[in-house]
Specification:
Blueprint lengths: L6 H31 L8 E3 L10 H5 L4 E9 L2 E4 L12 H15 L13 E6 L3 H12 L3 H4 L9 E6 L14 E5 L7 H4 L2 E7 L14 H16 L4 E4 L5 H10 L4 E3 L2 H9 L1 H4 E3 L23 E7 L4 H10 L11 E6 L10 H10 L20 H6 L4 E9 L3 H4 L11 H6 L8 E5 L12 H7 L2 E4 L2 H5 L5 E6 L14 H13 L6 E7 L1 H7 L3 H25 L2 E6 L3 E2 L2 E7 L4 E6 L4 E2 L3 E6 L8 E4 L1 H12 L1
Parallel strand pairs: 1-2, 1-9, 2-4, 4-5, 5-6, 6-7, 7-8, 11-17, 11-18, 12-24, 13-14, 13-17, 14-16, 15-16
Antiparallel strand pairs: 2-3, 10-21, 12-23, 18-23, 19-22, 20-21
Helix pairs in contact: 1-7, 11-20, 12-21, 18-20, 19-20
């Protein structure tokens, strides 16, 4: 007994601790479950905090579609004056002039509704700074001419008046007209009658957590905050935290927690944040795809390089790759590369390149001006990879999931001083060293001065295919595959596996050449998604591109003499990621521009010679490394 007694308290403590942990886990699971059910927010969830401090009070928040607008008031000489501090009060800043009259004007304009859409409601939160006993009667007097606007008995679309700040005790709510509502508190116990007069429940964020809006709250705090919100929801009341950081990250986290009102001093930014949700959020509706697992048998060695497959993700930066990785539940073929580098993308006339100068750099090994296609800054033609390797007896295939006369693919078969010269670019195929060309924009090969170009190309040995099925039936020889523009529509619009199909058939045809081949395949529309600031567009295109990478890796493993290089000509959109969940396949981003940036882009290499691509270097080095590898 003497030995057992001291053990008993420890056992009890252990049991109590385990019970607490279990309760916390159950609460956390409940919280996560409610997260999945949280309603999607819009600008109507915006609460324009300290709205009177805007350079244009009311109107900025109104035209941003906020559902709640806040004005602090002081009572002076019988008038309610709008200001945060008594020292800021001016005689002209009356609640009537700044808020009541303009709101009445909107009601008249929209025939009984504050917003054009009658489903869009508004609450006006009046934060009384002091002396509610005198201020509320003054407010009631000020509202008398506008009761059809602020009293739901007169109008179902009435603007709700909500008193906050210095307020009467809940037991006294009944002393005021029933169109006057109050801002409730989480810790206050309300009777059923009192609760009917509560418009929302509000609390200061700092009273419940040390989380300051950056990053995420701890799991314990997340449970606590969500519980506060759920308590309000059980009372059938919306919830608002005040004193929150005013940033996209905070808005996201508050929405996840279930908060109904999102406070902001930047209503236009909040409105943009929510209105762009469809373009900045990707939710994978599938189970994703499994990546190919390379064997690494020939990876990084000094063996012979017979073939080179260069895969260009146009506009693909690290943020786009991370977004695609997250959206595919943490898996990408790109993540299985062991040899990685970074490419600097500057053009000769600008630190921010376009596709023409960017592709020229790794297509010819020379810098040039933006918009130039395989010509130097003086306009002199530069020798491209297909022209160099033709001397080695190698064959070339060029593929794009977009316009085949666009800048990136054009670099490998044309020489022009302007990327928009699509007909001239098409005509250059006749003097190029390219054996297979696959993409869309057939009209540039047939219209205007090129009306006889297809006949000329046929005489030079090219067989024309107008569909992928025709191309797949080809047995040998030069191939010109000019697809309907609809075949290169976006993946999210139903393009299918055009890029993978084209790469596999091109490999099949060119593998017959004993001296080897060079293939450039471009995922063109990752760039389009960046220009459109459309994250789902960019992610679905990158997934398609990444699955094409898998086919290149698979062939490289089977062949043993193939070097695979994956890179980008530049990054497009200045993408940053605001929220991500690889377990759920969801990601949310923000674009800083609809143009290119000069952020370095990754270079992935696999196969013999892959180690040569490690490091940080100008994009011109990609050409030089390829040629050195082939000469070795």
């Amino acid at each position: 007994m003497i030995d057992v007694l001291p053990v008993m308290p420890a056992v009890l403590v252990y049991i109590i601790l385990m019970k607490k942990i279990l309760i916390t886990l159950i609460s956390l699971l409940s919280f996560l479950s409610t997260q999945a059910q949280t309603a999607i927010h819009s600008a109507l969830n915006g609460h324009s905090h300290n709205d009177y401090n805007q350079n244009i009070p009311l109107l900025r928040a109104y035209y941003a579609g906020m559902g709640s607008i806040e004005a602090d008031v002081f009572l002076q000489n019988g008038k309610l004056l709008v200001a945060h501090d008594i020292k800021e009060v001016t005689a002209n800043s009356t609640l009537q002039k700044m808020y009541l009259e303009p709101i009445a004007g909107f009601f008249a304009k929209h025939k009984g509704s504050v917003y054009p859409d009658q489903k869009s409601k508004l609450q006006l939160v009046i934060d009384i700074k002091e002396n509610y006993g005198a201020a509320i009667p003054a407010l009631i007097e000020a509202l008398k001419p506008y009761l059809e606007i602020f009293d739901a008995k007169h109008n179902a679309n009435a603007v709700k008046i909500v008193i906050s700040g210095d307020m009467p005790a809940p037991a006294d709510f009944k002393k005021y007209p029933d169109y006057i509502y109050f801002d409730g508190r989480p810790e206050t116990k309300y009777t059923a009658a009192e609760l009917e007069r509560v418009a929302m429940i509000s609390g200061s964020l700092s009273d419940y957590t040390k989380w300051n809006g950056k990053g995420t709250p701890t799991p314990q705090d997340a449970v606590k905050l969500a519980a506060l919100i759920q308590q309000a929801h059980h009372q059938q009341k919306p919830f608002r935290f005040w004193a929150t950081k005013d940033s996209p990250n905070t808005w996201i986290e508050l929405e996840k927690l279930g908060a109904d009102w999102i406070g902001t001093d930047h209503p236009e930014q909040l409105q943009h944040f929510y209105s762009e949700r469809a373009k900045t959020t990707f939710i994978n509706p599938t189970k994703g795809y499994a990546p190919y697992r390379p064997t690494y048998k020939s990876d990084g060695g000094l063996g012979k390089v017979k073939n080179v497959i260069l895969l260009i993700g146009d506009g693909m930066g690290l943020a786009q790759i991370q977004a695609a990785l997250t959206a595919n539940f943490g898996l990408l073929n790109l993540t299985f590369f062991k040899h990685l580098g970074l490419s600097r993308t500057e053009a000769s006339n600008s630190d921010i390149t376009d596709s023409a100068a960017g592709a020229t750099a790794f297509g010819t090994g020379e810098k040039t001006n933006n918009r130039y296609i395989s010509v130097d800054p003086a306009g002199k033609a530069l020798k491209s990879i297909p022209e160099v390797i033709a001397d080695y007896g190698m064959k070339t295939g060029i593929i794009s999931s977009g316009d085949i006369t666009d800048a990136t693919p054009a670099v490998f078969y044309a020489h022009q001083p302007e990327r928009s010269m699509s007909r001239e670019i098409a005509a250059d195929l006749g003097t190029s060293k390219v054996d297979i060309l696959v993409g869309s924009n057939r009209r540039s090969f047939m219209e205007g001065a090129n009306q006889h170009l297809l006949d000329t190309l046929a005489k030079k040995g090219f067989t024309l295919s107008r569909t992928l099925k025709e191309f797949e039936a080809a047995k040998s020889g030069k191939q010109l595959v000019l697809l309907d523009d609809s075949v290169t529509r976006p993946v999210k619009a139903g393009r299918g596996i055009m890029l993978r199909t084209s790469l596999l058939k091109t490999i099949d045809l060119l593998s017959a050449n004993k001296r080897g081949f060079f293939i450039m395949a471009e995922g063109a529309q990752i760039d389009y998604g960046g220009h459109a600031n459309d994250l789902p567009y960019a992610v679905t295109e990158l997934h398609d591109f990444d699955q094409t990478v898998a086919e290149a890796l698979r062939f490289a493993d089977q062949d043993g003499e193939t070097l695979v290089i994956v890179t980008a000509d530049h990054e497009t959109g200045g993408l940053s990621l605001l929220d991500a969940n690889a377990k759920q396949g969801t990601v949310r981003g923000n674009f800083s521009t609809d143009d290119h940036t000069n952020i370095m882009v990754p270079v992935f290499a696999y196969g013999p010679g892959a180690a040569n691509f490690i490091g940080v270097y100008p994009n011109t080095e990609i050409f030089k490394k390829i040629i050195r590898t082939l000469k070795r």
